[in-house]
Specification:
homodimer, Alpha-Beta Plaits, 2 domains, ten-stranded mixed β-sheet, 5 helices, 10 strands, about 20% helix, globular
Chain lengths: ~260, ~260
């Protein structure tokens, strides 16, 4: 079966996450349905990573198999014609038949937005925190996560038994942009809820309620503590899935509406 | 009754417009409900302008009467505590008892966003147009609207019989910002659907299907033609309601999420 590599953006607010489910509107489910309407026979679609309900993507990657070969641009137009507007296929290219969106990914990056004011528009895309947050403290604590660590304290019971809890974190950046605090977290792979727990813990650091030594302890030995500060899904964006020889995309503030 | 001047932003996607209606979720309805929960007796609320279902506001103004005086910041916090997150009271100040949000407004400005690409996030806040649009042609035609004109050809049967169909348009700006075309239309007052018809007609000019002479003819004599090109509500933002001695806000691209 011909295989294609898809780059996809979606507003996750109206979906029960990526993973196809019976009786629930999911991103993978909508993509599979649109792919069947291409009229190219049997279809299969695997994403590079699952995103939870309410989580957005600027650059999710998936591989799509269809029954017979079509021009990539026809696949892209055909899918978009049958997709709801909140899911958008940004590009389609023909892939090697053994290309695997998840197994071949060498890194992922996420953006997370905290809004420091109540915002009618931000409520869908950012976590509003009333408390004053100390940016320097958060930036300093963010460095604790960099490098190889066992993130079992930051993971929920994982759905993917193949995933190692040892993760190589490339960078955790924290920057202020007007009324937002923008996080970019890049690494080899991420465990379930791990990004949201890193952000939640850093917000507690910003409030002055947690310190770097506690983060160091949780990275040294398993703890159930970080789970209580899991940040809400609305602020999270899967930014990039990185493959061999590709550069990382930098931290940026998504435009309104998102322009890339 | 003490009167307050409110500055309000809202994401209109989930509302049946501004105007209170029985059995429909509206912005005015939500504000009235929140005001009643202040526990300060009888309430009344009048907006500077009605917005249609799906239309957003960055700076709607309303005057609010409550039964007994409260500190303005308590009114603001109290309202926001009872409002859905898509409606946000940006500021509250005590107003003269005869201040009238609509009658005293000397000008209004609107932003309108056209997206030149399909966009998962833009679908809620911009009108996606596939056709190539000629920016220069639109910018040139936009100047036809400036000054005093009878806009009856651009108005729907108006709900407000007080409003004159002669409108003083201060400026119609059209600028490209990455994948967006941003319009700013400022004037004395606006008739029902007038902004959306100006934008719709300018998009037709951008496509090369209408010319400036047709616009001039519709401004010189009544026509039902412009109605067919009414732009969709999702791209429209009430930007500013201007009162005596206040300056105009410039054209800008709303940040994501909106930061002011």
């Amino acid at each position: 079966m011909p295989r294609y590599k898809l780059l996809i953006e979606y507003d996750g607010a109206g979906f029960r996450g990526w993973q196809v489910q019976r009786n629930a509107r999911t991103v993978q489910g909508e993509l599979l349905q649109a792919a069947r309407r291409l009229g190219a026979g049997e279809v299969d679609l695997q994403g590079a990573g699952r995103t939870d309900a309410g989580v957005h993507a600027l650059g999710q990657v998936a591989h799509l198999d269809i029954g017979r070969a079509m021009e990539p641009f026809r696949v892209a137009f055909g899918l978009n014609d049958h997709l709801p507007p909140e899911i958008n296929v940004l590009s389609v290219e023909r892939a090697h038949p053994r290309f695997h969106a998840r197994h071949h990914a060498e890194g992922r990056s996420y953006l997370y937005l905290i809004s420091t004011r109540r915002s009618a528009f931000g409520c869908r895309y950012a976590w509003w925190i009333r408390d004053r947050l100390d940016l320097r403290r958060m930036q300093s604590a963010a460095r604790c996560f960099q490098g190889f660590h066992d993130f079992v304290s930051f993971a929920d019971r994982d759905l993917d038994p193949e995933a190692s809890t040892t993760v190589d974190i490339d960078e955790v950046q924290v920057e202020r942009e007007q009324d937002l605090i923008v996080f970019r977290i890049a690494g080899s792979h991420f465990l379930w809820k791990m990004v949201r727990r890193i952000v939640g813990v850093l917000a507690e650091v910003g409030r002055g309620r947690l310190s770097e030594s506690e983060i160091a302890a949780w990275l040294a030995a398993p703890s159930t503590q970080p789970a209580q500060w899991t940040a809400p899904p609305c602020g999270l964006f899967l930014q990039q899935v990185r493959y061999k020889d590709e550069p990382w995309e930098p931290l940026f503030l998504p435009a309104f509406p998102l322009a890339q």
